[in-house]
Write a structure and sequence with these properties.
By secondary structure, the chain is of the alpha+beta class. The chain has helices at residues 13-29, 62-66, 69-74, 110-125, 127-143, 148-172, and strands at residues 33-39, 53-59, 77-79, 88-93, 100-106. Helices cover 48% and strands 17% of the residues. A 5-stranded mixed β-sheet has the order 1-2-5-4-3, sandwiched between helices. Strand 3 (77-79) and strand 4 (88-93) form a beta hairpin.
């Protein structure tokens, strides 16, 4: 069965689900864990999103994180390795009706970490951009209800522009912590 692409209105429950899962992740990763961030659309209040909690742990060592694979699998995660992004470990839970995604990066992957956090903070600070993004996501979900690749392709140009703006904006800010 193909993944069903559903975009729903933002829910405060997503923050609770993130906190609950982040605590489990911290326990699994132990002292290797430097930080755990809520990223993606569910981390932006008011932004419609696929109800999938995106989580970004930052670790000292990816190799040590790889050693925790069994513990993550006990929580129901599929350990997918880099899955197309060098220096990342991608895990997903829920199969085709995914509920959580984990994107583990080592501290040295500063560009990837900064990119995710900059987009989150930019959308939180720029409501009109978040509204535009929400409208686009709803339109794409209606157009591609069982085609996640089509949905993602439809967001590419918007996301490229957003990421550039967000990175430039975040570098002007002094209050954003990337760890």
């Amino acid at each position: 069965m193909a993944q069903h692409v559903v975009v729903t209105e933002w829910s405060a429950e997503w923050s609770v689900l993130f906190e609950r899962e982040a605590e489990r992740i911290r326990r699994i990763l132990g002292e290797n864990c430097e930080a755990v961030h809520h990223i993606g659309s569910t981390s932006v209040p008011g932004l419609p999103a696929k109800p999938i909690i995106d989580i970004m742990p930052v670790v000292r060592s990816l190799e040590a994180a790889d050693g925790c694979r069994g513990a993550f699998e006990e929580l129901g995660y599929e350990y997918m390795g880099e899955f197309g992004i060098p220096g990342r470990r991608y895990l997903r839970k829920g199969g085709d009706e995914r509920t959580h995604q984990i994107h583990i990066f080592a501290c040295g992957s500063r560009g990837d970490i900064e990119r995710h956090l900059a987009v989150r903070e930019y959308l939180r600070a720029h409501e009109e951009t978040a509204r535009q993004y929400g409208r686009l996501k709803k339109q794409l979900a209606a157009r591609f209800p069982y085609d996640i690749e089509g949905y993602c392709r439809g967001k590419e140009a918007f996301m490229e522009r957003l990421e550039k703006k967000a990175l430039a904006w975040s570098r002007e800010q002094t209050s954003i912590s990337f760890m």
